[in-house]
Write a structure and sequence with these properties.
Layout lengths: L2 H15 L4 H8 L2 H4 L8 E3 L13 E3 L3 H22 L33 H4 L8 H14 L6 H9 L7 H11 L2 H5 L1 H6 L12 H18 L1 E5 L4 E8 L2 E12 L2 E9 L5 E5 L6 E3 L7 E6 L4 E8 L9 E8 L1
Parallel strand pairs: 3-11
Antiparallel strand pairs: 1-2, 4-5, 5-6, 6-9, 7-8, 7-10, 10-11
Helix pairs in contact: 6-7, 6-11, 7-8, 7-11, 8-11
């Protein structure tokens, strides 16, 4: 920017800021006899403030030129501010120097998760067509909430799936009855109605999606349940997760005249088990370990027990729950 332009800007700014602007206004209202001006609109305005200390000479402007000068001055000032902000960007209050922030932050592999959110699909499902991950996670969440419920299996399936198909309660209810039969349970019925088993879930008809989702919900509930009896006293379960494998072994033992339920686990990280019966006092808790074990003395009756698995390192919002059914 040249010196003449800077001088002009400074003069205009001074003219706008001085308290003695009324000097120019008085000149405009003087009579023709005093100034000898026949047309006040054509007269000159002189910046009359004392600018000798500023090292600049007063300059006159025609009234019609002032708006143009103001626009020019505003444009130059705006450009100077832009250049200054580019050369010296403003900082946040907590910054002492310019910092480049990433566009997004990758979530760590071990973070705050629900008790089931890190289980993988092959761990729980064996379907003719894989379901989308979003559908899987929603079904897993619903099934974890329902696995401890005393509702019949059919009602659990409907409640687990119906939110995926709003306003289709009756159709979901009808298909749930079919899914409870062995043909749908094995996936043969879906295979027969699906034109191409290699197609995606999104390519299926709505009723086929309902059937596949109901099959997935049933398998999830079954894979979250272990059953032992006097004739089959041992049950095992292997689950796969993003942080490693989870192995469980449940054994029903008869010691003298007492029955005991024994659970051993192999976990991918430090964790603990909590085995609980129907009463709040019927409870056993294991120490934190990668191989925790827990034992609970039980009555000789058919009863359902809940095995809760917690991992302190995962900061779980809720524990993962398995159901153990004991049949005498």
């Amino acid at each position: 920017m040249n010196s003449d332009s800077e001088s002009l800007q400074y003069q205009l700014l001074t003219w706008l800021m001085i308290d003695n602007v009324t000097t120019g206004e008085q000149a405009l209202v003087k009579s023709e006899e005093d100034d000898g001006v026949s047309n006040p609109l054509n007269q000159n305005i002189t910046v009359t403030s004392d600018e000798s200390g500023l090292g600049v000479e007063p300059q006159t402007f025609q009234i019609g030129e002032i708006p143009t000068v103001q626009e020019r001055y505003q444009a130059v000032l705006k450009r100077r501010l832009q250049i200054q902000s580019q050369n010296h960007p403003p900082l946040f209050p907590w910054e002492s120097e310019l910092v480049d922030y990433p566009e997004f932050v990758e979530q760590p592999s071990i973070a705050s998760v629900s008790g089931w959110g890190w289980l993988t699909q092959p761990s729980l499902l064996n379907l003719p067509i894989p379901i989308p991950e979003k559908v899987f996670q929603e079904l897993a969440t619903k099934c974890q909430a329902l696995v401890t419920s005393s509702l019949p299996l059919g009602a659990k399936l409907v409640q687990a799936v119906e939110s995926l198909f709003p306003d289709e309660h009756q159709a979901v209810n009808d298909l749930a009855g079919l899914v409870l039969r062995s043909a749908y349970r094995s996936g043969n019925a879906v295979a027969a109605t699906a034109p191409n088993l290699q197609s995606d879930y999104s390519d299926l008809l709505p009723r086929q999606q309902m059937a596949l989702s109901l099959m997935a919900a049933r398998q999830m509930l079954e894979n979250m349940t272990l059953a032992v009896s006097l004739t089959e006293p041992v049950a095992e379960k292997l689950l796969f997760s993003s942080v490693g494998n989870l192995s469980f072994k449940v054994e029903l033992q008869s010691l003298d005249q007492l029955m005991q339920l024994n659970v051993q686990a192999e976990l991918p990280m430090q964790g603990n088990l909590q085995l609980q019966g129907e009463g709040a006092t019927n409870l056993a808790l294991s120490p934190i370990s990668v191989n925790p074990g827990v034992e609970l003395s039980i009555p000789e009756t058919n009863q359902t027990y809940f095995l809760k698995v917690e991992f302190p390192e995962l900061n779980q919002s809720q524990p993962f729950v398995l159901v153990i059914k004991v049949m005498m």
